Amino acid sequence: MRNRAGLFCVAAALLAIAGSVQGVDSESRVNLADKGELPSGSGLAAKFAGDAGLKTNAQVIFADDFESGNLGDGWDETGNKNGKVLSFASPGAEARLGKRCVRVEAHLGQDTGGGLTKWFEPTDTVFIRFFTRFDAGCDYVHHFVTLRANKSLQGGDKWSGFGGAGLKPEGTERFSTAIEPWGDWGRWTAPGRWNFYSYWHQMEPSKGDGKYWGNSFSVPTAPLIPLDRWICVEFMLKHNTPGSPDGEQAFWIDGVLQGHWKGINWRKSAQLKANALTLESYVTDSWTKNPVNVVFFDNVVIARSYIGPAAMPDH
Question: Which of 51, 138, 170, 174 has a CB 3.0–4.6 Å from the CB of 161, allowing a cystine?
């Protein structure tokens, strides 16, 4: 594990360019969640109270409940500017989450927040699950949890999926999708509603400036994201057959499927695979007005099949 602030500084600079633009919305994309084609409710985690021992399941690629070790242990990159952004904290009364979680405290004018990045062995269909809580005073968040596809896990190719804000991917070097709270230009109470913010080689340009900012896959009728309450968030990405529109993505909130989209041509090359997860709270003054914004994360899992919410302990 490396504490490499440079990664997050570069990413922050690139994202700041996109600060005034939220990409094309998903009005033309059909949300298939109501069809019930994907599992909901209990999943892999149901047999592991509080996720204890879940990482031993053969379907699990990576898991961290932050109950032991130092900040960043088991991760590959840590964004913690001046050591003032990331810390351990108590998850409070949520019995499923043990005694420690990660606290991200972002300070306008001093940093853009921070987080953790993990590269992992890719799989055809990948599921990411985490718990998060927005502090009672949290404002809008600019970017959140991102899954990136890179050419490989070695050398410079492991970075091919980073950067590129405002540019359309070629289909051979990168694609990405992020599960994020979106405030719809301030129309929805902060932090907003969950949506995907995605980059791929068939994405649509912005109607405003013609650039390629992340395209949104949103659910405008979904409940607003609550403050000061733990939320179980899970999302899935299915790789497409290179060059064919048979890829998918979906997300669940507290075990309920809210969004499911098919027909996505993520990539042209079989070499390009989703293999890097960034867990972060990234803020800028484009959206956020509060000088300090706090978000908590816990019980992160990467797996090959649906994970579901953590199970309650027996006691």
Answer: 174
| pTM of this prediction exceeds 0.90 | yes
Domain 5-19+35-303 has CATH 2.60.120.200: yes
| pLDDT tens, position by position, 136-188 | 999 999 999 999 999 999 999 999 999 999 999 999 999 999 999 999 999 99
Evaluate whether 121 touches 108 at the Cβ level (below 8 Å): no
Q: Are 278 and 145 within 8 A, CB to CB?
A: yes
pLDDT (tens digit, 9 = 90+) per residue, 130-144?
999 999 999 999 999
pLDDT digits 0-9 by tens, 62-100: 999 999 999 999 999 999 999 999 999 999 999 999 999
- Find all residues with CB under 8 Å of 110, minimum gap 6, and list them: 81, 84
DSSP states of 4-29: -HHHHHHHHHHHHHTTT-----STTS
User: In this structure, what token pair is assigned to residue 53?
Assistant: 């021992």
User: What pLDDT, on the 0 to 100 scale, is given for residue 189?
Assistant: 96
Task: Give pLDDT tens digits for 248-297.
Answer: 999 999 999 999 999 999 999 999 999 999 999 999 988 889 999 999 99
**Which of 286, 226, 215 is CA-nearest to residue 249?**
215
> What is the pLDDT at residue 313?
87
Counting other chains too, the contacts that 204-207 makes at CB distance below 8 Å and 24 or more residues apart are 204/23, 204/24, 205/24, 205/168, 206/21, 206/23, 206/24, 207/24
Helices and strands, counts by H and E, the chain: 1, 15
d(CA 104, CA 115): 7
Quick count: other Cβ atoms within 10 Å of Cβ 167? 14
Alpha-carbon distances of 54 from 95, 123, 131, 199, rounded to whole Å: 16, 18, 15, 31
Q: Which residue has the tokens 């994907």?
A: 38
